[in-house]
Amino acid sequence: MSSTGDFQRVYSQLVELFLMPLLQGGEVKIPPLLAPSCFELLEAFAKPITEADLRVARLLHIQALNLLPLKSIPWPSPSLIACAATLSHLAYLLDPLLSKPWYQRAFARAYGWAYEWVDHLPPPESVGEAVVRHLLLQSFRALRRRDITINTWIATYHFWGRPVPWNVTALPKLRRVRFTLNEERSLAEIIRLKSQEVKNIPGFTSLYEQAFARISPLDTLLNPTPALELDENKAQWLSDRFLRMAICNAFLQLDTSSLLELLGKITINATSYPHPHRALVVSFSLEVLLLWLLATSHPQETSFRSQEASFCAALLCKAWDHEKWKQRLGPLSPKDWDKVLHLKRMSGSWPTSTIEQANFLLEHTSPSFC
Asked: Is residue 370 part of a domain?
């Protein structure tokens, strides 16, 4: 990028061609790529500079309100622009045209730039920024591509993610026009197919995994799976009340078996964390467990067969024996208290070591976010 003027021109195209339709669910076009060397120029443009910028800020704010009651969002900030630039590189690498031999140099350059942008990405500085980064990634994950193959009496045409020219389908009966493929592919499928094409390039799939993790540390928290690893860096996001509520709601979408095993795993792993982070995880787990218990009609003994699930149940049962945790959980109605008593009666079938471990953890941890 030879000048700040060139940077501003390419940045405007990034916003108008890529980011706006990405957030609106429209047709995304790949803009000219920003070189990683532009990262140093981002600070000079960390303010709304175009009408499109203001529209992006409004769109992000509206979407963010579905998660948190944020008063404002920090668009455009240097790190958010860097996230958008990274996503544009990731989209560019999936262009089927880059599979052609004469595009190999362009692919190699963009591939190297994408890794550099990922390395440049700093962690979010605030809850608002973390939420915006999550929204950008969520919109990117929602991308779809329509792939079409058309056979005629003289040739076969492929249009991957591109419109079909009118002359290709003209005179369909005379030219024997047949659509042999007309399929909409998800982003995950597109990445899988591309990774098969570029088997000789190491780390193609891991580039997307690393990028997604660096762009949004909230991604795995707001889309939890049984494989989630809640380390200390992720645990810090549980300190925000409204974000914690959103994460809690996401956890409660899991089925009972997956939920209890996941909560048990992350709570057991948190025993080695420093107290502030350990307190956040234990308090969060108890909060989710209590909400799960209140929402269920009657806890079944079969739900607590695994070590992690029985640890969860023991943790909730023993919490009522500690005054500090009892105050944290708050009073229950007689109907809900019956569920806790039922859980306590089932605890006789759980390993003694599991109950002692849960009790020890509660004794040596103070409630957080009271």
From this structure: no
